[in-house]
Write a structure and sequence with these properties.
Blueprint: E1 2-9, H1 10-19, E2 22-23, H2 37-48, E3 56-62, E4 68-74, H3 76-86, H4 110-117, E5 120-127, H5 131-141, H6 149-157, H7 159-169, H8 181-185, H9 188-200, H10 210-222, H11 226-242, H12 255-262, H13 269-284, H14 290-293, H15 303-318
Parallel strand pairs: 2-4, 3-5
Antiparallel strand pairs: 1-5, 3-4
Helix pairs in contact: 5-6, 6-9, 6-10, 7-9, 9-12, 11-12, 12-15, 13-15
Length: 319
């Protein structure tokens, strides 16, 4: 492993992002837009006041044209926010000094605009690193930071598992799930997919705690099973047929079990009919399912409650 350092201005970084020479969406990184407007505004204010902005970390690779590109490992939020502000995508928070409050980039005076564009950021670049080394570096860079469970999972997944999870979370059925904005911002939809995969795998998954899911990810990526992943993708397509519209009672706590049991029906039309009918009845009558709701009140990731919820949906197949 080798590394070196480059110092670039915000303007040149944004220019290289547009040219594809700097890549923000590297797979291992969190989604953009993780910060609220106050935090975004404070970053912009740091640039205006010429306060040093923390450096970013990148992995050097080659694109299909054999050109050197940098894939961002840490610092995506900072770079994407600077880019968004220069593109007039948000205003600075009103709580800051009147001189800048509620102003987009185009509304700042020219000197202030140039100060932001010419702000220098240190880029720490790693060369010749493997996928595993990339994951290790990302985890070390974020050690002590408040990454959500699902963003931590992403750091462990590996390329094949990340590709599958992204394909699954973009299936039409996932649009019908009642995820909150906060859950989607934290990428909790990908945790659902991983939990469903864990439930139908042969790996010994006793619960859906963070520790167990990370252990499952580390084991599964070493012996990646594409057929098992295909079952989850097919199950999501089947559920899209079974459930016609977005439903308020399609909630995260039940979703891994709903998907896992749909995967058990793929080869049997009779089981599909039974499961689909019972599942829709369950969703419409969710508030009255007192026995099931007992498994959702506390310790939802515990082995006992996960097993009981999973069995509850399994029984719908044979009814």
């Amino acid at each position: 492993m080798k590394s070196y350092i480059k110092t670039r201005t915000v303007q040149s970084i944004i220019r290289d992002i547009k040219k594809g020479k700097i890549i923000l969406d590297t797979g291992i990184q969190r989604n953009q837009d993780q910060w609220d407007r106050k935090k975004k505004s404070l970053l912009i204010l740091s640039a205006i006041q010429e306060i040093i902005i923390p450096g970013i970390f990148a992995k050097e690779t080659m694109n299909k044209k054999n050109e050197i590109i940098w894939e961002i490992l840490d610092g995506k939020q900072r770079v994407s926010i600077l880019t968004a502000y220069l593109n007039d995508e948000f205003k600075l928070d009103k709580s800051y000094a009147d001189e800048y409050a509620n102003k987009k980039f185009s509304e700042l005076d020219e000197d202030t605009q140039n100060t932001i564009k010419n702000t220098e950021i240190v880029i720490n670049i790693y060369q010749d690193i493997s996928e595993q080394e990339t994951e290790d570096i990302f985890c070390r860079l974020n050690n002590g930071q408040q990454l959500s469970n699902d963003n931590l999972y992403r750091a462990h997944m590996g390329a094949d598992l990340r590709k599958f999870v992204d394909e699954a979370r973009n299936k039409p059925f996932m649009e019908k799930v009642n995820f909150t904005k906060g859950q989607l911002r934290k990428s909790e939809d990908q945790g659902v997919i991983l939990a469903a995969l864990a439930l139908i795998s042969d790996e010994a998954v006793n619960d859906l705690s963070k520790k167990s899911i990370i252990q499952f990810i580390d084991d599964f990526k070493q012996n990646f099973d594409s057929e098992l992943c295909d079952k989850i993708l097919e199950a999501l397509d089947l559920l899209d047929e079974m459930i016609p519209d977005k439903h308020k009672n399609l909630k995260k706590v039940s979703l891994p079990m709903i998907i896992a049991n749909a995967a058990l029906c793929l080869e049997d039309d009779t089981k599909q009919k039974s499961y689909g009918d019972n599942l829709n009845t369950f969703l419409d009558d969710y508030e009255n399912r007192e026995e099931y709701l007992e498994f959702c009140k506390t310790s939802t990731a515990s082995s006992q409650n996960v097993t009981k919820r999973n069995l509850y949906f399994y029984n719908m197949i044979e009814q």
